[in-house]
Amino acid sequence: MKTKKLFNSWIMWVVLGVLAVVLFLPMVFGNSSAKVDTSVGLQQLTSGNVTEAKMFDSDQRVDLKLRDSLKIDGVDKGNSVSFYYSTARAQQVANAITKAEPGKFTDQPVQSNWLLSMLGVIIPFLLIAAIFWFILARSQGGGSKVMQFGKSKAKLITKDMPQVTFKDVAGADEAVEELHEIKEFLQEPAKFQAVGAKIPKGVLLYGPPGTGKTLLAKAVAGEAQVPFYSISGSDFVEMFVGVGASRVRDLFEQAKNNSPAIIFVDEIDAVGRHRGAGIGGGNDEREQTLNQLLVEMDGFDATTNVILIAATNRPDVLDPALLRPGRFDRQIPVEAPDLKGREDILKVHVKGKPMDATVDLNAVAKKTPGYTGADLANVLNEAALLTARSNANLIDDRALDEAIDRVMAGPQKRTRLMDEHERKVTAYHEGGHALVAAAMNQTAPVTKITILPRGRALGYTMVVPESDKYSVTRNELLDQMAYAMGGRVAEEIVFHDPSTGASNDIEKATSTARKMVTEYGMSEKVGAVRLAGSAAEQQMGGAQREFSDEMAHLVDQEVRELIEQAHNDAYQALMTNRHVLDRLALALLERETLNQKEIAEIFSDLQKREVRDVWLSNEGRPVHSDGPVLSPKERAASSTD
Ligand SMILES: Nc1ncnc2c1ncn2[C@@H]1O[C@H](COP(=O)(O)OP(=O)(O)OP(=O)(O)O)[C@@H](O)[C@H]1O
Ligand SMILES: [Zn+2]
C-alpha cells in the first residue's frame, strides 16, 4: 500500500525530471542551426557553397557555414545548417569535406566532448541512486536518520560524566536504596571481588514516564564518579539492518575500555520486546540487536565492572530472556510519587527559584495527585515563566495554581486522576483489605497501603510475611480469603453499592477455595481426596475431569461455603472496627500512601477476630489435647528463663 503510493508520487516525478533533463541537454548545450538531410549536406559540400565546416565525431554531426543561404522547398534555412551522418558514411563525409576545402575546417574527435557526454551519463545515474537512497531511507523509518548515518556513532551513543547525585532524586527512596549497592560496587569493585560477591549485571528500572528513571541511572554514575554511556532503544530500531547489533558491540566496547562505567539503555522495550511478537512477524533488525545485547551481557564477568541499567514503561512486553538470572535480574519499580514524595521533589526543584514567603509546598503537593517528578519540575518551571512574564520577582500561589492547571493537561491524559468519589471508594476498599488482614489471627503484618493507581489496579495493600514461608495452613488460607474479600466487603458496608474493583480479589479468593477443596483436602464433605482434572488443571489445557457430576456439585457447594465464610469473617471484622476503618480511609485520602509504622498506629485499638474452633476432618475423629513437643531450641529458651 505504502510503497505503491510512494511510486505514484515520487518515482513519477523523478522519472519526469530525468526525461526533461535528457530532452533539454542537447537544447542547452547543442547548437540551434537548422537540421538538413545528409544528402543535402553532402550536396552543399560538393557545390562549393561551404565556407566553414565543423565535424563532431562524437555526435556524428557536421555544422556548416554557407556563403549563400540555403533554401529547401522554398523555406529559408539560413546560413548555418547541420546534418547528421551514419557511421557507414563517415568516411564519405570526411572525404567530401576535405575535397570541398572550406576556408575553415575543424574536426572534433570523440574525447573533446567528454564532459558533456559524461554529464549525460552521470546525471541520470545520480538520479537513480538518489531514488534508491530515498526509498531505503523511507523503509528504514525516518529519512533524517540516513543523513546521520555516517556520523551516527558519535551522536547516538553519548558519553557523559553526570554531576547528579542521589540527593537530586526525591520521592523514590526505595529505588535509591536498591541502587546504593550498585554505586558501591562501581566505586570499590575490589572490595566485592575479594569476597567473591556477585553483582547484578543488569538493573531494570520500570515505571510510568517522567518518574525519574533516567535521573536515577545518572545519579548512580554521578555518585560513583564513573562515565555514563547512554543510548535509546528506539534509536536502534530505526537503523539499517545489522547496524543495531554492531552499535551494541561498540557501546559495550567503549564502556569496557573505560570501566568502571554505566551503560544506560532507555526504552529498552523497543529492542527487548518478546521475540517474534512484532506486527507482521518478527523484526530481524530488532532481534539481532536484542541477541547482541544478550551476548554482551553474558560476556560480562566479575572483572568487567560495567553495569547495564535499562529503563522501560512496559516491563510486561519484555522478552523473558532479558529477565533471566544473570541478565536484568534486579528489577526496580519507579512509581509516581506520593504526597510526601511530591513535596520532596518540589523542594529539589525549587532551588534557584525565589518563592514568595506564603507559598506552602505541601499544599502544592496536595493539589497535584498523580503528577510525576517530571510534571512537578514542569509546574515549577511554568510558574517561574509566568512570574517572569508578569515582571514579578517572587513566585506566588497564583502563578503556581495556574502552572498546575497548565501541566494538568499532560498528566490527566497519562495517569488517570480519579474523581473524589472514586478515590474515596478506593480508600475504603484498600482500607478494608488492610483492616481485615490486621484483624485476622494468622496473617502477616500490613506493610504498605496506597491508593495511587498502579497499572490497572486502583490501589494496593501489601501484606508481607516476616520470613519466607513454604507451606500454608488451613487457618492461614481462610484468613487470606477473608482479607481478599475485605475490600469488597468494606465497599458493601460503607457505600451499600459495591464496585467492579473487586473482581480480582474475588477471583483470588475463589481459586484459593477451590484448591482447598480439590487439592489440599481441607473440606470435611469432600475429604482428603485429590480431584484430578480440577478447574485449575482444566484451565491449563490439561486433564479431563475424573469425577462424577455429584462430586462436582459437592465441590461447588463447598467452595461456595468457604467463600461465604470468608465474606462473613471480613464482614464481622469490619463491622466491629468501623471507626478504625473510617480513620484509615481518611488517612489514605490525606496521605495516599501509608507505611507499616503509620498503619500500626491507626490500628492501635483494633479489635481482633476470635480464633476459629479447632477443625475436625470428621466428627468421628475427636480432638487430641496433647500439643507438639518443644523443639530443642524452644527447650533451651524456656530453661534459661
Ligand atoms: N524523583 C524525582 N526527583 C526529582 N526530579 C525528578 C524526579 N523524577 C523526575 N524528575 C524530573 O523530571 C525530569 C525527567 O525525568 P526522567 O527523564 O528521569 O524520567 P524518566 O522516568 O526517565 O522518563 P521517561 O520514561 O519518559 O524516559 C528529570 O530530569 C527531573 O528534572
Ligand atoms: Zn482489592
UniProtKB/TrEMBL annotation:
<dbReference type="InterPro" id="IPR003960">
    <property type="entry name" value="ATPase_AAA_CS"/>
</dbReference>
<keyword id="KW-0645">Protease</keyword>
<dbReference type="GO" id="GO:0006508">
    <property type="term" value="P:proteolysis"/>
</dbReference>
<feature type="transmembrane region" description="Helical">
    <location>
        <begin position="114"/>
        <end position="137"/>
    </location>
</feature>
<feature type="domain" description="AAA+ ATPase">
    <location>
        <begin position="199"/>
        <end position="338"/>
    </location>
</feature>
<dbReference type="InterPro" id="IPR011546">
    <property type="entry name" value="Pept_M41_FtsH_extracell"/>
</dbReference>
<feature type="binding site">
    <location>
        <position position="433"/>
    </location>
    <ligand>
        <name>Zn(2+)</name>
    </ligand>
</feature>
<keyword id="KW-0472">Membrane</keyword>
<dbReference type="GO" id="GO:0016887">
    <property type="term" value="F:ATP hydrolysis activity"/>
</dbReference>
<feature type="binding site">
    <location>
        <position position="429"/>
    </location>
    <ligand>
        <name>Zn(2+)</name>
    </ligand>
</feature>
<dbReference type="InterPro" id="IPR037219">
    <property type="entry name" value="Peptidase_M41-like"/>
</dbReference>
<feature type="compositionally biased region" description="Basic and acidic residues">
    <location>
        <begin position="632"/>
        <end position="641"/>
    </location>
</feature>
<dbReference type="Pfam" id="PF06480">
    <property type="entry name" value="FtsH_ext"/>
</dbReference>
<keyword id="KW-0378">Hydrolase</keyword>
<comment type="subunit">
    <text>Homohexamer.</text>
</comment>
<dbReference type="Pfam" id="PF00004">
    <property type="entry name" value="AAA"/>
</dbReference>
<dbReference type="Pfam" id="PF17862">
    <property type="entry name" value="AAA_lid_3"/>
</dbReference>
<dbReference type="InterPro" id="IPR003593">
    <property type="entry name" value="AAA+_ATPase"/>
</dbReference>
<dbReference type="GO" id="GO:0030163">
    <property type="term" value="P:protein catabolic process"/>
</dbReference>
<dbReference type="GO" id="GO:0005524">
    <property type="term" value="F:ATP binding"/>
</dbReference>
<dbReference type="GO" id="GO:0004176">
    <property type="term" value="F:ATP-dependent peptidase activity"/>
</dbReference>
<keyword id="KW-1133">Transmembrane helix</keyword>
<feature type="binding site">
    <location>
        <position position="505"/>
    </location>
    <ligand>
        <name>Zn(2+)</name>
    </ligand>
</feature>
<dbReference type="Pfam" id="PF01434">
    <property type="entry name" value="Peptidase_M41"/>
</dbReference>
<comment type="similarity">
    <text>In the C-terminal section; belongs to the peptidase M41 family.</text>
</comment>
<dbReference type="InterPro" id="IPR041569">
    <property type="entry name" value="AAA_lid_3"/>
</dbReference>
<dbReference type="GO" id="GO:0004222">
    <property type="term" value="F:metalloendopeptidase activity"/>
</dbReference>
<keyword id="KW-0547">Nucleotide-binding</keyword>
<dbReference type="GO" id="GO:0005886">
    <property type="term" value="C:plasma membrane"/>
</dbReference>
<comment type="similarity">
    <text>Belongs to the AAA ATPase family.</text>
</comment>
<keyword id="KW-0482">Metalloprotease</keyword>
<keyword id="KW-1003">Cell membrane</keyword>
<keyword id="KW-0812">Transmembrane</keyword>
<protein>
    <recommendedName>
        <fullName>ATP-dependent zinc metalloprotease FtsH</fullName>
        <ecNumber>3.4.24.-</ecNumber>
    </recommendedName>
</protein>
<feature type="active site">
    <location>
        <position position="430"/>
    </location>
</feature>
<dbReference type="InterPro" id="IPR003959">
    <property type="entry name" value="ATPase_AAA_core"/>
</dbReference>
<keyword id="KW-0862">Zinc</keyword>
<keyword id="KW-0067">ATP-binding</keyword>
<keyword id="KW-0479">Metal-binding</keyword>
<dbReference type="InterPro" id="IPR005936">
    <property type="entry name" value="FtsH"/>
</dbReference>
<comment type="function">
    <text>Acts as a processive, ATP-dependent zinc metallopeptidase for both cytoplasmic and membrane proteins. Plays a role in the quality control of integral membrane proteins.</text>
</comment>
<dbReference type="InterPro" id="IPR000642">
    <property type="entry name" value="Peptidase_M41"/>
</dbReference>
